[in-house]
Amino acid sequence: MRLASHSARARELAGLIVMGVPSPHGCDDLLPGCADVIRTFREILDRHLRSRPDDYPASFRFLLATEQQYHWSAVLGDFSDDFYEVASPHCAV
């Protein structure tokens, strides 16, 4: 975790590992033995996010995974390719 507190790449790799824990490959067994490490990683991410970093979306997804919110960490991907039409009640635009 010392690397994750200073390295964007280390945070990314640790985050991807935590996001991938709930899988059909039996990785759930890793969680009980890593609770302290995951808690420390959550604290690192929290501090990092308070600095309003450029990698905020990815780091937020990793933070959600440390809170065992795996579904939300997986679905909150890149919204830049989604388009939603919303009708205005006040005009035809």
What does this structure look like?
The chain is mainly α. It has one domain (8-81). The protein is built from five helices and no strands. The chain has helices at residues 8-19, 30-33, 35-50, 56-66, 70-75. Helix 1 (8-19) packs across helix 4 (56-66) and helix 3 packs antiparallel against helix 4. The chain is extended. The relative contact order is 0.15.
Proportion of strand residues: under 5%
Strands, count: 0
N-to-C span? 50 Å
Uncertain runs: none
Total separate domains: 1
Question: What's this model, at a glance?
Answer:
By secondary structure, the chain is mostly helical. The protein is built from five helices and no strands.
Write the layout of secondary structure elements.
Blueprint: H1 8-19, H2 30-33, H3 35-50, H4 56-66, H5 70-75
List the keywords.
93 residues; mainly alpha; extended
